[in-house]
Specification:
498 residues, 40% helix, alpha+beta, six-stranded mixed sheet, four-stranded mixed sheet
Length: 498
């Protein structure tokens, strides 16, 4: 075991560090959270933030081990069997508690009961599971998936799914007849009557889909800049799930650029983002999202610096995005995934992540990131050059602030001690350019004063404002506008006041 490598990793879904034995309740929550999820390792004797081995007293190791075993045995249910080992790092002693993914979830803290004592791992925290998550854990114990559950609200004979029938025919050249529905487990027999599963409802164009799964949609948006404050374009995709991924992909295509380079006698076209990887990420979001989480939709956000795809539900415990080339496959939705495979939308052999990894090699200018945020899974395709430019701009801005602060230290101190027209004029000009007369009106003066002229001259000398017609300063339409340097001065002034 390379312990130095482990220490370099942040706390997360499968890893936690503690300087000493946690409180009984905290330890129990961590143990059941690991068991309900992908398993994990808890290291005692390691200080967090930054990670530093502080060790445990050697004489106390056996006693601490017994305490851990007793807490797990008496506080956690069903039975959890940990693997507890002693480690040495130099002359310091540690304890490693290894918890494996449980086969009989949900695991919970006995004192709190199943409803309030079930915890899951979300990032580096233990979060209390709600009824939906507990239900998902119960299904996992029975090797069932949410999309395989029967919907008794309407029999198959009354369900409208003609659009899906046609899509299935177009994609597979086969009829979606009764035999195909049964084979794909899209319908199930209940006392001689066929009822749809959750999966078929999601594929249908019946009103029942809108009432049961009104949240099963994709919200697409193109934002101005790098923040989600101003929309340039947006679209809600609320069709049946067989069409959602392609519509979202087409939205992305409308809002990214395609360039061309010349190689020899050939002109080579190239999109600014790896399209196959993005399409695969969107498809994965639709196929593997958690449809049992009500009120959550898929989001596809396009910014100036990246494309971000967020899907409800955590990553399946057996999938590791850090090993994308290993052909991993674990379908959360055991009915929907095979149908998507039949439609040719996904490859069920685990090639999806490898496809993303392979195409990213052809785009060294794009950084791929993934993370679990809340109860959602998110991937980002980030333009490295854009990020570098932003960082450079921030550095230049900081340098400008430092220079400006040194150059105009006297003016800053005067403004902090006694508010004058110097900053007031700058504040007025942040809204729009004004002439001398308009400035005097804004300041409540009956006419342009000598003091106003003096301060305007000083502001121009300090390069905080400038003429709108620089080549003819006596032009009758001449006005004054604030410079970037002037805006920076106001920011520094505001920071100093705080």
């Amino acid at each position: 075991m390379n312990f130095k490598k482990i220490l370099s990793q942040p706390e997360g879904r499968r890893l936690e560090f503690k300087e000493q034995l946690p409180k009984t309740s905290d330890l129990a929550k961590t143990i059941v959270a690991f068991s309900n999820d992908a398993g994990g390792e808890l290291f005692l004797g390691v200080k967090d933030n930054p990670h530093e081995v502080v060790g445990l007293p050697e004489d106390d190791l056996t006693s601490i081990e017994e305490q851990i075993s007793n807490i797990i045995y008496t506080k956690c249910y069903p039975t959890i069997i940990p693997d507890i080992t002693f480690l040495s790092e130099g002359d310091k002693h540690l304890i490693r508690v290894t918890i494996y993914r449980g086969n009989t979830p949900p695991y919970y803290v006995k004192d709190l009961g199943k409803l309030h004592g079930t915890f899951i791992r979300v990032g580096s925290t233990n979060r209390q599971a709600d009824e939906n998550i507990i239900g998902e854990l119960e299904r996992r114990k029975r090797n069932l998936s949410f999309d395989s559950e029967i919907v008794l609200d309407k029999p198959l004979s009354a369900l409208k799914y003609d659009s899906f029938k046609q899509i299935y025919k177009d994609k597979t050249s086969e009829d979606l007849d009764l035999q195909a529905l049964k084979k794909l487990e899209l319908v199930k027999d209940v006392e001689g009557v066929l009822y749809p599963t959750q999966a078929l409802i999601l594929f249908s164009d019946d009103n029942l889909r809108n009432s049961l799964f009104h949240f099963a949609k994709i919200e697409c948006a193109r934002f101005k800049g790098t923040k989600s404050e101003t929309f340039i374009d947006q679209k809600t995709i609320s069709t049946d799930i067989s069409m959602q991924a392609e519509e979202a992909y087409n939205f992305v295509l409308r809002h990214i650029n395609k360039g061309a380079t010349v190689e020899g006698v050939y002109t080579i076209s190239r999109w600014e983002y790896p399209l196959k990887a993005i399409r695969e990420a969107i498809r994965n979001a639709v196929v593997h999202r958690d449809y049992s989480l009500t009120g959550k939709d898929i989001k596809v956000a396009i910014y100036d610096d990246m494309i971000e795809i967020t899907s409800p539900g955590l990553l399946p415990p057996s999938i590791d995005y850090s090993a994308m080339e290993s052909r991993q496959s674990d379908a959360k939705n055991k009915i929907i995934a095979p149908v998507f495979k039949r439609l040719g939308i996904i490859d069920q052999w685990g090639n999806g992540l490898k496809m993303i990894a392979d195409e990213l090699k052809e785009y060294p200018d794009i950084e791929f990131k993934w993370r679990e945020t809340g109860l959602s899974f998110q991937v980002q395709f980030i333009k490295k050059e854009f990020v570098k430019q932003q960082e450079l701009q921030q550095e230049l801005q900081q340098e400008l602030q430092q220079e400006l602060q040194q150059e105009l230290q006297q003016e800053l101190q005067q403004e902090l001690q006694n508010k004058s027209l110097y900053a007031e004029i700058l504040l007025i000009l942040t809204n729009k350019a004004l002439s001398r007369k308009e400035l005097s009106v804004e300041l409540g003066q009956k006419q342009v004063s000598g003091q106003l002229n003096k301060i305007i001259t000083k502001l121009i000398e300090d390069k905080l404002i400038e003429h709108t017609i620089p080549n003819n300063i006596n032009h009758p339409s001449q006005k004054f506008q604030i410079t970037e340097r002037g805006n920076t001065f106001l920011k520094i002034l505001d920071q100093e006041k705080k």
